[in-house]
Design goal:
It is an enzyme of class 3 (hydrolase). Removes the formyl group from the N-terminal Met of newly synthesized proteins. Requires at least a dipeptide for an efficient rate of reaction. N-terminal L-methionine is a prerequisite for activity but the enzyme has broad specificity at other positions. Fe cation binds at residues 89, 131, 135. One of its GO terms (biological process) is translation. InterPro entries: Peptide_deformylase (IPR023635), Peptide_deformylase_sf (IPR036821). Helix content is 26%, strand content 32%. It is an alpha+beta fold. The protein has a domain at 12-81 and 101-138: Peptide Deformylase (Alpha-Beta Complex). The longest helix is centred in the first third of the chain and has 14 residues, at 26-39. The strands form three sheets. The chain has a five-stranded antiparallel β-sheet with strand order 1-2-3-8-9. A two-stranded antiparallel ribbon has the order 4-7. The protein has a two-stranded antiparallel sheet with strand order 5-6. It is globular, with a radius of gyration of 15 Å.
């Protein structure tokens, strides 16, 4: 296991959709170990593989002491009820902006043994699931901001 450096905005890997995991080999097992170790720190809610430079569909989470991972996640359910709140990202450091997300989300994927993994939750967990799947699709949370807020975000990024 290794604690991995986080790729930040401007790195093309963050804007590239990730490929599905088709074979679980030592490389994928090491990736999962690295995702779990790297997310297991205060202030980290989730971590997508491309955030550590690997273009595979996998992410880990760390919500209220619950740490886990999922391979090939797909969002299968989102509530119509929306939550508004500030959202941040390890790949967009030091910036937080109001981002609308579904109040509840459910993701289905697999584990290293090919077993089904279902991860679901409300509020912070729902926000995390949506945020990490966006990463795997090559999106950053700033892409979801309302136009006026996005302008502020882009200005703040230039000032970093």
């Amino acid at each position: 296991m290794a604690f991995r450096d986080i790729r930040v905005i401007g790195d093309p890997v963050l804007r590239t959709p990730c490929a599905p995991v088709t074979v679980v080999d030592d490389r994928v097992r090491a990736l999962v170990d690295d995702l779990l170790e790297t997310v297991d720190h205060d202030g980290r809610a989730g971590l997508a593989a491309n955030q550590i430079g690997v273009g595979l569909r996998a992410f880990s989470w760390n919500i209220d002491g619950d740490v886990g991972y999922v391979l090939n996640p797909t969002i299968v359910e989102l509530s119509e009820e929306v939550q508004d709140g500030d959202e941040g990202c390890l790949s967009v450091p030091s910036l937080w902006f109001p981002t609308a997300r579904a109040w509840y989300a459910r993701v289905v994927g697999t584990d290293l043994d090919g077993g089904e993994v279902v991860v679901e939750g409300e509020e912070l967990m729902a926000r995390c699931l949506q945020h990490e799947v966006d990463h795997l699709d090559g999106m950053l949370y700033i892409d979801r901001l309302e136009r006026s807020v996005r302008k502020k975000a882009m200005r703040a990024l230039r000032d970093l």
